[in-house]
Write a structure and sequence with these properties.
Elements lengths: L1 H13 L7 E5 L5 E8 L3 E7 L2 E8 L4 E9 L3 E2 L3 H7 L12 E12 L2 E11 L2 E16 L6 E12 L15 E12 L1
Length: about 190
Amino acid sequence: MKHLKVLLLSCALAGPAFAAPETYQIDSNHTYPRFSYSHFGFSTQLSRFDKTTGTIVLDREAKTGEVNVSIATNSVDTGSAIFNEHIQGEDFFNTAKYPTATFVSSKVNFEGDQIGSVEGLLTLKGISKPVTLTLTSFQCMPHPMLKKDACGANATAVVKRSEFNMGKYAPHVGDDVTITLAVEAVKE
């Protein structure tokens, strides 16, 4: 009986077990950062980046996480080879000097069991600014083809390109740029 009391007391003092953080590798075949802006008020232009890597770390029990995204800026795809070259120049992304854009966060905000937003630093052309990505969808489940756990999300934010030394032609070409990130990541 004495051993049973000691065992019960040990279990009570140990407290609840917490899930360990889980690391997910970004699936570069299903992750595309996109950006859109007004072109002289005539239309909204939409472009994307084709090469994205990074990790997402989630502890859903503790409701914490980290996001680390790296984008090859020379993978920009505007739909036009001439404009791809133009937007990679010094007035805009300056990919020769700044080949990478990053978003790094250590603050993932949960709303109940779902992630509502991610706060971090967006770095473009060597300039870092705080940005909050608002999630419009988020889901984790076993991937039906890979047979591994996976998570996916869609997130959005609006930034001013002039704050990143890319303000040429503003305000005629819109200064407000909407960033949309469609991301899928597979558990390591």
